[in-house]
Design a protein that fits this description.
2 copies of one chain form a homodimer.
Chain A: E1 3-12, H1 19-30, E2 36-50, H2 54-69, E3 75-81
Antiparallel strand pairs in A: 1-2, 1-3
């Protein structure tokens, strides 16, 4: 079976507070970086998936993201081929 | 000053062990996802930067990644405009 490099990116939904991002913003500002107007942190998962074709690989990745990689109450995800 | 949406993606360098990725791979397999041949986890930072132009914003983002966002001993980073 062919294998596909799939990247799942998980980000907090708009409106969900991100204290970690806020902390990074503060740290950047205190390191004298000016002009930082908002930081939000997310996660990225680089996976190698064996599947019949790209469509199947994408379907599997979406299911994985929905079931395990993202907390869909507060997070959104997107799937891309690398 | 115009503001730019910049995304910094931080990934472990090739060859650096990723126990978290391994754990996710194991979890996916035990959730009956077949065909998972490797998972590596990274971080993504979505930032809004005020800068004179896109070039300055990119330069600032690269510096932030190098100084704070990534541990360049074990991690690589890349900067993109969203």
């Amino acid at each position: 079976m062919p294998s596909f490099k799939v990247t799942v990116t998980v980000r907090l939904k708009q409106g969900v507070l991100d204290p970690q991002g806020k902390a990074i913003e503060g740290a950047l500002t205190s390191l004298d970086f000016s002009g930082v107007k908002g930081v939000r942190q997310g996660k990225v998962f680089d996976m190698v998936l064996e599947a019949k074709d790209a469509k199947e690989a994408e379907k599997a990745a979406l299911k994985m993201a929905d079931k395990l990689l993202a907390n869909t109450v507060v997070e959104d995800f997107q799937v891309e081929f690398a």
